[in-house]
Write a structure and sequence with these properties.
The protein is α+β, with helices and mostly antiparallel strands. Helix content is 30%, strand content 28%. The protein binds 2,5-anhydro-1,6-di-O-phosphono-D-glucitol and manganese (II) ion (2 copies). One manganese (II) ion binds next to strand 5.
Length: 281
């Protein structure tokens, strides 16, 4: 898996340059989820695909920005699903964005994820790497080296609530749960970019990030393979938990590579609370 991490570092350096000088305009295209693709999305996707194509260990890749699975090496071991630039629409208001990678064996399914990486393009460029045993934070320095900073672990109960999805479309049980959290003193943190929002929850030791199903999007908005599963793997490895509202998100059965799912990620106590509110509904 090392050559994959090295490739992600190289792509990160190239994507950072694209963000700094790139055109944040819209392309004429849409991706499989119907999102209008920004030129940044397409340029970042091209960087990652070209770098992954050089690796003998990769069998197939799936990108948020491409409709179909791409075959790389038939003898490759790893399958990688990635979101080249999550929250890309936030670049033109200078908020943090990120890249997300899920590394799978055998098939693109939550139960077969064996590694996850995300990169935060914020005031600093940071990379988090998870191999199922630990969650490690690296920071890019002025020489483009990625230096290990710390292992990340989560408290049993946290202090942050990061509530996504369109509030006017929330189901009653969800609205009651979120309101109760704020009445109990949880701190609100939501930028609209899941990578910095989840990085915040993870680095502050815990809480709850939620992007639920709602009347406008009953299956949520976040894509299973390259948004939900990588973060579920990271949060569960760090001692937190994930859910689709009733079970670990990693137990979800994927039927299409762009499938979405309701998504809850956080400390174990907060995920237990989600199950209480969602079991009743
Ligand atoms: P992407 O930019 O890759 O399409 O993903 C954006 C996602 C995610 O970053 C965030 O949690 C969510 O969109 C926010 O959605 P809303 O704007 O509907 O809150
Ligand atoms: Mn995304
Ligand atoms: Mn994206």
């Amino acid at each position: 898996m090392n050559e994959i991490i090295e490739s992600i570092k190289q792509s990160t350096i190239e994507i950072k340059n694209i963000i700094v000088k790139g055109d944040t305009g819209k392309s004429e295209q849409q991706n499989s989820t119907g999102d209008t693709q920004l030129k940044l999305d397409i340029a970042s996707d091209r960087v990652i695909e070209n770098n992954f194509k050089k690796l003998a260990s990769i069998k197939q890749i799936v990108s948020e920005e491409q409709d179909y699975i791409i075959d790389i090496n038939e003898n490759g071991k790893y399958l990688i699903a990635y979101d080249p630039l999550d929250g890309s629409s936030l670049v033109d208001v200078n908020l943090s964005v990120g890249s997300i990678y899920g590394i799978y064996e055998k098939s693109f399914e939550g139960q077969n994820i064996i590694g996850a990486v995300y990169v935060v393009f914020g005031p600093r460029v940071e990379m988090v790497v998870c191999d199922g045993k630990s969650v490690k934070l690296y920071r890019m320095d002025e020489n483009k080296n990625f230096n290990f900073t710390q292992d990340l672990t989560m408290n049993k109960k946290g202090t942050i609530s990061s509530p996504g999805s369109t509030q006017q479309c929330w189901y009653d049980n969800h609205r009651t749960m979120i309101n109760t959290m704020f009445q109990e003193g949880y701190e609100l943190s939501y930028s609209g970019g899941m990578v910095p929002d989840l990085h915040h929850v993870l680095l502050r030791g815990g809480g709850l990030f939620s992007y639920p199903g709602a009347s406008d999007k009953p299956n949520g908005k976040l894509r299973q393979l390259f948004e939900v599963f990588p973060f579920a793997f990271i949060f569960e490895t760090a001692g937190g938990a994930s859910s689709d509202g009733s079970q670990s998100a990693l137990k979800i059965k994927t039927t299409h590579i762009h499938d979405t799912s309701p998504c809850f990620l956080g400390s174990s106590d907060e995920i237990d609370m989600v199950h209480q509110y969602y079991k009743q509904s």
